[in-house]
Amino acid sequence: MNELTPTLVTASTVMTEPGAYVQALAIADGRVVGTGQLDMLRSRYPAAQVLDFPGAVVVPGFHDAHIHLGMAADDMLHLDLSPDATPSLSALVATIGTEAAKTPPGDWVRGSRYDDAKMPEGRVLDRWDLDEVAPDHPVLVVQVAGHWGVLNSVGLALAGIVDDSEPPAGGDFGRDGTGRVNGILYERALFDVAYAASSRTGTTVVPASTQADKLLGLRRALDRWHAAGLTSICDALCGPDEVALFGAARESGLLTMRTGFMLGAEHYDLVHRLGLRTGFGDERLRFVGIKAFLDGAIGGRTCLLDDPGEHIHGIQATSTKDLTEIVRTVHGDGNRIGVHANGDKAIRIVLDAYEQAQAADPKPGLRHRIEHCSVVDADILARMRALGAMALPFGSYVHYHGGKLLEWYGPERVSSMFAHRSFLDAGVTVAGSSDYPCGPYEPLLGIQSMVTRRGYDGVEIGPSQRISATEALAMYTTNAAATVGDTDPTGRLTPGSLADFVVLASDPLATAADEIAAIAVLATYVGGSPVFEA
């Protein structure tokens, strides 16, 4: 689009923010400069060209407030072991074997998005399954939640893990009935082996991909995300490598997504070395804050609960003392922190740390985040409201996990999980997030999941937490923008906002709830320029 002469954007329906409609937008220099009737805007801008989407609906660009671009860029280079690609354990193992057969001995074979809960064999992958098909290669398979994975025997040897090894603090090793390590690494045990962004040593056993390769993976990820209508994201766990990757992508013109990032707390020294502050950067790439971990995952069944039950292997990934010190330091520097906390017990520990930091060094305008914030109650909601703390629960987990949530957590607890209704009613800022690759990235699927509270299997999960389509759309637009910056110019199409929008085949606010995810994305625009066209 011409940056000097406005372009008028019109369609059968134009939504400026959830539930608010106009006939057309005027866009210039990447921003919305006017809204209203098409004839009025034509009169105001007589030289303007018209970009018309007849029969379609224009909505603000979707914004995922907690996703993992750096991780996705790497995953795109390795095996897809999701249920869609490998619908059984035998198919998964065969895929590993096929990849090993064409990989030089000694080189790593890696795959992600393995979902044990959807395997018909009814058991968990272990080292010996992998040894059968890849005896000469180190192999790592990461479970879909990203909080545990499986190494084969060669991989365990490279990691120095033997049967009598002690797991790291905040992590654990899986074992068989005789006490032998079975290859499963939980939480810190996995992070230290595989994830440089959250490794406490800054190095990993699994070799990092080259930046050139990860740029290729990043482009693949962004193409898919733009095709789903995403225009803005917050990568909720980065290390120096990811920051360098995003910088290189920006310089080369590959970073078409507006990208905020949260730096892993293990790398907080980088904040001081570079003089970063929350909000540093610009509208294409900016520093949002610091990320820390307190517990494990919902899908991985490692979250920290007051009453864990028989299915949950709760792990506290960071000690209470260490977390309190991290929060105190980040808060004292005036930076935002987001702490990963799924279980109610974990959330209370995080709130304790936030309250202590605020009491010792009051900063009323500094609002911290609780990443996922999955299991809540009235006490948690009241404390969050008093602090101004923001919640980022999973948007699509009800759909993705379905009836397994009832099996793992029980009907009473799921009624307070991913509690979008409760957060809204309590006046807590709450936003939509996918946590991809841990959950589906499509915002329309997340919206449908929040509105219907039905799983992929048709099972109803905590129906009391249903929200309206208008409220759900706000989760992925205005509310998401609020969690990365109080004056963030994304999430709406009003004068002064960035011209980021999605063209849909139908209006999600006028579509049957169980059909929202099927709405076609026809085009996606960032700054008034197309980044995806069907």
From TrEMBL:
Pfam families in the record: Amidohydro_3 (PF07969)
Amidohydrolase domain: residues covered: 49-532
Domain of life per record: Bacteria
InterPro entries: Amidohydro_3 (IPR013108), Metal-dep_hydrolase_composite (IPR011059), Metal_Hydrolase (IPR032466), YtcJ-like (IPR033932)
Name this polypeptide is given: Amidohydrolase
